[in-house]
Amino acid sequence: MTISAEEKHHGAALGRLLVTLNDELPGVFVRLRKGRDRSSYFLDCSVEDKLSRSTIGLYLKHSSARRTPWRYTFLRDHQEEIGDLAQSCYDVFLILINGNDGVACMDHKQLKQLLDDVYEDAEWITVSRNLRQPYHVSGRDGKLKKTLPRNSFPKAVVEVIAAALNLSRVLDASNANDELDEDY
């Protein structure tokens, strides 16, 4: 069995997410399921001693470019899959793997600032970053109002899962420690 570069990149990002979830939310059990296309995943989350359950959608893309800017193409099928994830999940995250530089992570609301609900045959998102700076993200239909910190992944996903499962007390304690570890 051969392993594609895409599978390697997805595996590294998903592995980081699962390890961080285990560290930050130790009582949460997760199950990762494949979505309809090769870039989409479902992350089913539950708490053992509660009836809390939630599903988070993940859509991963990677760029093999070594340096900024990193460009991503979104075909109509890609956007339809993200839309389907948004309808069936608590929230959806677009995870853009920028070569060996890092990961830009945004939720569905942020994605809609870049690509609107009118799907063209092909649209694009560009991620750029200067040395020791956060990510600047723009798309065919606009740009993000704020930059994305380099440590937005997997932190943003963990925060949404904690909120979805009503685990804010656990997350508040870990956020106090994370404020000391900002990585730009």
Description of the molecule:
It is a single chain. This protein is α+β, with helices and mostly antiparallel strands. It has one domain (5-177). The chain has five helices and nine strands. The strands form two sheets. It has a five-stranded mixed beta sheet with strand order 1-2-3-5-6, with helices on both faces. The chain has a four-stranded antiparallel beta sheet with strand order 4-7-8-9. Strand 7 (122-128) and strand 8 form a beta hairpin. Helix 1 (5-24) crosses helix 4. The protein is globular. The N and C termini lie far apart (38 Å).
Tell me the layout of helices and strands.
Blueprint: H1 5-24, E1 28-34, E2 40-47, E3 53-63, E4 70-75, H2 76-88, E5 91-98, E6 102-107, H3 108-114, E7 122-128, E8 136-139, E9 142-143, H4 152-164, H5 168-178
Helix pairs in contact: 1-4
Radius of gyration: 16 Å
Whole-number total of structural domains: 1
Number of helices: 5
Contiguous runs where pLDDT drops below 50 for at least 5 residues: 179-184
Net shape: globular
Query: Which percent range fits the helix content?
Result: 25-40%
Give the spatial strand order of the biggest sheet.
1-2-3-5-6
Distance between the first and last residues' Cα: 38 Å
SS-based structural class? alpha+beta
Number of strands: 9
- The quaternary organization reads as single chain
Q: How much β-strand is present in the residues?
A: 25-35%
- Give the biggest sheet: 5 strands, mixed
Round the mean pLDDT to the nearest integer and report it.
89
Element-level helix/strand string: HEEEEHEEHEEEHH
